[in-house]
Amino acid sequence: MKKLIRFFLVSALVSGIILYAISSLNQSEGYSSGNTLTIFNWGDYIDMDLVKQFEKETGIKIVYETFDSNEAMMTKIEQGGTSYDIAVPSEYMIDKMRQEDLLIPLNHNKLPNLKYIDDRFMDLPFDPNNKYSVPYFWGTVGITYNPTLLPNKEFNSWHDLWDPDLKNEIILIDGAREIIGMGLNSLGYSLNDTDPKHLAEAYNKLKKLTPNIKAIVGDENKLLMQNNEAAVAVLWSGDALDIMWENEDIDYVIPEEGSNLWFDNIVIPKTAKNVEAAHQFINFLLDPKIAAQNTEYVAYSTPNKEALKYMDPEMVQDERFYPSPELTDKLEVYENLGKKNLSIYNDLFLEFKMYRK
Amino acid sequence: MNNRKMRNLFMIPYALWIILFVVTPIILVAYYSFFDIEGYFSFANYKKFFTPVYLKMTLSSFWYAFLITFFSLIIAYPTALFLTRTKHKQLWLLLIIVPSWINLLLKAYAFIGIFGKYGPPNQFLEWLGIGTKQILFTDFSFIFVSVYIFIPFMILPIFNALNELPSSIMDAATDLGASKWTTFKRVIFPLTIDGVKTGCQIVFIPALSLFMLTRLIAGNRVITLGTAIEQHFLVTQDWGMGATIAVFLIIFMFIIMILTGTRKRGV
Amino acid sequence: MENNIIIKFQHVTKTYHDDLVLDDVSFELERGKFYTLLGPSGCGKTTILRLIAGFTEATKGEIFFDGKKVNTIPPNKRKVNTVFQDYALFPHLNVFENVAFGLRIKKFKQKIIEEKVKEALSFVNLSGYEDRDIKQMSGGQKQRVAIARAIVNEPDVILLDEPLSALDLKLRTQMQYELRELQRRLGITFVFVTHDQEEALAMSDEIFVINEGKIQQRGTPLDIYDEPINRFVADFIGESNIIKGKMIEDFLVEFVGKQFECVDQGIRANESVEIVIRPEDIEITTLEKGKIHGHVQSVLFRGVHYEIVCQDITGNEWLIHTTKKAFVGEEIGLFFTPESIHVMRLGETEEEFDLRLQSYSEDQTNE
Ligand SMILES: Nc1ncnc2c1ncn2[C@@H]1O[C@H](COP(=O)(O)OP(=O)(O)OP(=O)(O)O)[C@@H](O)[C@H]1O
Ligand SMILES: [Mg+2]
After folding, report:
1. CA-to-CA distance for A73 and A71, rounded, in angstroms?
2. What residues of chain B lie within 8 A of the CB of A213, using their CB?
3. Where is the ABC transporter domain positioned along the sequence (chain C) (predicted)?
4. Which of B5, B64, C7, C57 is the least buried, fewest Cβ under 10 Å from its Cβ?
5. How many Å lie between the alpha carbon of C53 and the closest alpha carbon of chain B?
6. Torsion, Cα of C219, C222, C224, C225 (10° steps)
7. DSSP label of A260
8. Which tens digit of pLDDT belongs to each residue from C280-336?
């Protein structure tokens, strides 16, 4: 009994000390004080040298925090505990955040560098007139594969996945839009198609892929590809890049039938306390030279047309990440299909996952 | 009178806890289950549950939960029996329990490495000349890892039940002519059946709603009711359907509890 | 004679991790007798029972059952049944099934099982309790179920490990009587363990007094009570006055500075000995008639008798049980007959003791 009491006392004491330490640390970092800018971004998704440069040029102090999923980010912003001035959601999240009234409209007058963004990437369905967001980086969904594990196999089309030789070799992302979209794309339909007949066709086509599927996983796909655990994976180009970073054998291709075009975007969330500095920072990142430097660091595809001029030409000419105009035309941004249709997608995906050969 | 008042006073924290963390969530879950994805009141979710997709899912959840419980039991019972006969049984027990303190995600990741193409089992198969086999993302790996994770929870109640058996009872059975097997069948097992029931409950019910492992170890080739709930709440945001599945899970749990409930003997 | 012997221990030694628990124990048990193992806690009584039942193996020595060596025969193959100290009844079975357990294992027909169980239960006065739950039985009833569970198998030997220690005095006395009755009716060998000397004296045909893993003395209750071999036995079997003395010659012993006539012989002259006189063998009398004088220190009324403690001139304390009353501070005379004086040699073993008694009785018959 004495021991138990001591245990509780000690744990209470330790928690108290930790709480105090956290609160005093927070204060010393000046969360709530004067001219600071709090950024909420994905991990390792900006060149920190640029952050320092910005601090030096403007005298604004930057607090940098990271998240690892859109949902986690949105939850924290909804809670409103920290006054984030900048966040970087993916495009499907923008719609949701707008509906939940979590975004502050951008003042385009304060963003003169917006003109450097490629027109193709402006005024997209998820944010008409870029009222709330500026594209930060973009990418595609495609096929990642390991040629050393699969000599004499070439991947150009979604159809290549249905090759009987690939039994048990393919990893798919655990996402209904991506996979059902792949099914639709492989049949030549739009990945925003909601025609039940087309969806049924796509489902039946996907069922035939089952023997080739090794697993349908989340973030673990990177690990599995890097370690040669699987030979082929359907994933986002961003993840593909990360994998290629670790394992140089691996290659990536955007299937010729077309695919998804995704964006990560800079927004100013409702929690912002320093809207002025946020605009300043966004404009700073849109500067072509700055954007070029940032892109060379992050290595994802930049929507900043002017920035391409300052970048390593080899990177700009890589068709895997800057596809040709013909192929780019076939890339589609996910449209908001409405909850009803989304649930149809989800049910089909669930059914597909449960399907066994 | 005074005594009863005191007892009621002591009941307050318990009652509050139950109301806040058991009753309220169940009511909320039941409430949500009556809203379709667009937020309108309807029985659509219940109708949907009785479609082949969800019935199949229920069936497979039960099947996998059964397999996990079954294998846990046939491994845990002899282990517990062995533990009670060892000299430093508390130490051995601790060694078995310690892994359950490690984060589940960590263990799952470890198994991805172990069961992978280049993991020790496959290297062994390679060495035997059998060649690399797909172990990860199979029913086998899923059940193996689940059993590994649940086994301490099965061992503990059985161990406690066995440990409470006075050794003289076993001696008495042998004394009356029972062989080791008969002693086990007629005395030890019946007297520890409550421990077995508790162990099965502790394993079966969470096994019914396993998620995470279904993705990490089974590569979503196994879909349980738990996986579906997770998907509906986190990914598809179809809270109504998620809640409906949860309602059914709760119903199943109650049925299982009633079926395996320990009836009080005597009095 | 030999085939009347059911159990035989030959130089049996038992150690637990270098701990000597039984030290070269030898004895024989005859059929149909009531034996009691008597000794203080931890002396090895249960160990002897466990060796007979087969729950442990002897470290050294041989154990015979009905003339056959059984050292390594498992308990389920021995015709012995045990009534455990804590009864060890099966809590998940009712009274009937507890008693029927052994019969079911031997695959008797249901009808025979019912008959036998009924008989056994009536033997222990528990007819009609068949369907009772074990938890609903009282301590005495449980103990009787345990006995019924043992006798129903008709073993050659029943081992009872302190079966009465948990009962209250009244029930205990009643059960002592019932047990002895039962043993007479069944005619099988009972080995009964207790550390209560009164219980042992009341029930047994023969008593084994054990201490520190050795049998100190064996014999009928009367033998042991009247002729304790050493201080330990004398002390353990009832309260005693034990005084240092010296043997002068046969039939003459000296203590408290005086010489007294006694009935012991065969001891060297001038050998130091110990004298035992039972408290109830001492009478209070006048100073003139008293063989020794004592100064009364305390008087306790014990119901049937007074318990008086007095001190003699050399400082020895004497315990006296008498129906006569004395007063604290009074000088009284103590009287005892030569037969009441028991002379014990220091360190005499059981064999030497028996030999001396034998020669003594031979002498007597020769005379
Ligand atoms: N399994 C065992 N391991 C080690 N020592 C043991 C074991 N069983 C008994 N002993 C020791 O052997 C000695 C004799 O034990 P035993 O049980 O025979 O005593 P007992 O005469 O029955 O005592 P009690 O009257 O207290 O029941 C004790 O000192 C005990 O500590
Ligand atoms: Mg004992």
Report:
1. 5
2. 219, 221
3. 7-237
4. B5
5. 7
6. 170
7. B
8. 899 999 988 889 999 999 999 888 889 999 999 888 899 999 998 889 999 999 999
Q: Is B30 helix (H, G, I), strand (E, B) or coil?
A: helix
CA of C7 to the centre of ligand 2 (A): 20
Sheet containing strand C258-261, edge to edge, reads C258-261, C252-255, C241-249, C272-277, C342-345
Q: Which SS3 state, helix, strand or coil, does residue C59 take?
A: coil
Distance CA A209, CA A168 (A): 10
The answer to whether A92 is annotated as binding is yes
Domain of residue A62, residue span: 35-137+263-322
Grouping H, G, I as helix, E, B as strand and the rest as coil, residue C255 is strand
Question: Looking at chain B, which residue has its C-alpha nearest residue C81?
Answer: B175
What are the pLDDT digits (tens) for A265-287?
Answer: 999 999 999 999 999 999 999 99
**CATH 1.10.3720.10 at B49-260, yes or no:** yes
CB–CB contact B220 A339 (8 Å): no
Reported as a single tens digit per residue, the pLDDT across A289-305 is 999 999 999 989 999 99
Give the total residue count for chain B: 267
Q: What is the mean pLDDT of residues A97-112?
A: 93
Count of all residues that appear for chain C in the document: 367
The alpha-carbon radius of gyration of chain B (Å, integer) is: 23
Give the CA count within 13 Å in the CB-facing half-sphere of A228: 10
Model confidence pLDDT, tens digit, residues B15-56: 899 898 889 999 999 999 999 888 889 999 999 999 998 999
Interface probe for B, chosen from A174, A222, A350, A351 (most Cβ of B below 10 Å), is A350
A34 has pLDDT over 70: no
Query: pTM of this prediction?
Result: 0.80
User: Are A57 and A149 found together in one domain?
Assistant: no
Architecture of domain C2-226: 3-Layer(aba) Sandwich (3.40)
φ, ψ of residue C248 to 5 degrees: the values are -85, -50
The pair of three-digit structure tokens given for residue C123, joined into one six-digit string:
């033997």
B154, with CB counted inside 10 A (0-12, 13-18, 19+), is buried
Q: What distance in Å separates the CA atoms of residue A171 and residue A216, rounded to the nearest whole number? A: 6
Q: Report residue A235 as tokens.
A: 């994933």
Question: Does residue A29 carry a pLDDT above 70?
Answer: no
* Short-list A110, A107, A85, A89, CA closest to A98: A89
Are A307 and A197 members of one domain? no
Question: Is the pLDDT confidence value at C109 over 50?
Answer: yes
Tokens 């006395």 appear where? C173
